């Protein structure tokens, strides 16, 4: 997935200090993607009040809707894309040479490193689609590395009475995904049966958030419906989820607070204005393939980069929680 906004705002993402347990609802922003395709996504990361959850730096929920999604080749730097479909099939092609269809229960994980390009198309006309795509910011030691791609289908499952969680990234109470990430992370798709309570074990050193994907749930005492992201802070060993009368499906995200400041703009992640400007210039250059490669199955068609804003992008400095709040 790409950020198709023609005037994207820079996301000046500040690495956060530890905050302790909280329960904050952050409303989603409705974002139209692709003009006449009228595809809508609900974006809950990044936003000024919550730029990151661990290294998770971008979160779009697509659908549920029927759509002909045709996202042409576009670039990424210094991040990993995590594609998790709930309904529908997506054809992924990239400049590493991959051409695969991802289906519900399977994970697509693409690592951009110094630069990669990819495209994503739904299969069929007006195909049903509901899914989530996230970006993971890469730490300094791998952010400029070689691009790669993997699809993981044999994902572990954590179970409790009335609940089942598929762990697509990281680990949950011993159930660990083999997907390769570069900072301590958690991503799990949790289904809770109608009227059931479940206690989800958490890592105390992680910050966590929950996105309800279907139904309704009481999470840490907060009534959550599809749309907003519930940020839980850090310092928790567990969280209680109570499903409503129709049951609940939710995404549990977590990770160690990210140790690096970021600049995010359009589809690029960097550490400075210079990083972003250089990536944009490379994509718009006639020699774009030198950095980003060529996407299999496509000719010259691609998504052009928007113009940079008339300001120099600056990352925010790291904030620490006061010792005596």
UniProtKB/TrEMBL annotation:
Keywords: Iron, Metal-binding. Residues 188-285 form the Pirin C-terminal domain. Signal peptide: none annotated. Pfam families: Pirin, Pirin_C. Its cofactor is Fe cation. Residues 314-325 have a biased composition (Basic residues). Gene3D superfamilies: Jelly Rolls. Fe cation binds at residues 74, 76, 118, 120. Belongs to the pirin family. This is Pirin. It comes from Cellulomonas algicola. The lineage of its organism: Bacteria, Bacillati, Actinomycetota, Actinomycetes, Micrococcales.
């Amino acid at each position: 997935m790409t950020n198709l906004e023609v005037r994207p705002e820079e996301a000046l993402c500040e690495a956060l200090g530890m905050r302790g347990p909280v329960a904050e609802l952050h409303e989603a922003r409705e974002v139209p993607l692709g003009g006449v395709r009228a595809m809508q996504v609900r974006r809950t990361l990044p936003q000024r009040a919550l730029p990151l959850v661990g290294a998770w730096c971008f979160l779009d929920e697509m659908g549920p809707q029927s759509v002909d999604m045709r996202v042409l080749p576009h670039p990424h730097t210094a991040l990993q894309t995590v594609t998790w479909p709930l309904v529908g099939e997506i054809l992924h092609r990239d400049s590493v040479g991959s051409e695969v269809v991802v289906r519900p229960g399977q994970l697509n994980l693409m690592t951009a490193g110094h630069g990669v390009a990819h495209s994503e198309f739904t299969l069929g006309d007006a195909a049903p689609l509901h899914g989530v795509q996230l970006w993971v910011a890469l730490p300094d030691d791998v952010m400029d590395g070689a691009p790669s791609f993997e699809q993981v289908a044999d994902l572990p499952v954590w179970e409790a009475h009335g609940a089942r969680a598929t762990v697509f990234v990281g680990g949950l109470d011993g159930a660990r995904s083999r997907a390769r990430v570069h900072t301590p992370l958690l991503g799990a798709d949790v289904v809770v049966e109608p009227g059931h309570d479940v206690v989800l074990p958490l890592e105390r050193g992680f910050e966590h958030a929950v996105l309800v994907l279907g139904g309704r749930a009481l999470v840490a005492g907060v009534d959550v419906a599809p749309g907003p992201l519930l940020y839980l802070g850090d310092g928790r060993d567990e969280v209680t989820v109570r499903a409503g009368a129709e049951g609940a499906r939710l995404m549990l995200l977590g990770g160690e607070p990210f140790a690096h400041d970021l600049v995010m703009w359009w589809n690029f992640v960097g550490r400075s204005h210079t990083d972003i400007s250089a990536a944009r210039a490379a994509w718009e250059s006639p020699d774009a393939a030198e950095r980003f490669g060529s996407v299999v199955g496509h000719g010259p068609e691609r998504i052009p980069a928007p113009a940079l804003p008339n300001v120099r992008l600056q990352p925010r400095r790291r904030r620490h929680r006061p010792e005596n709040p």
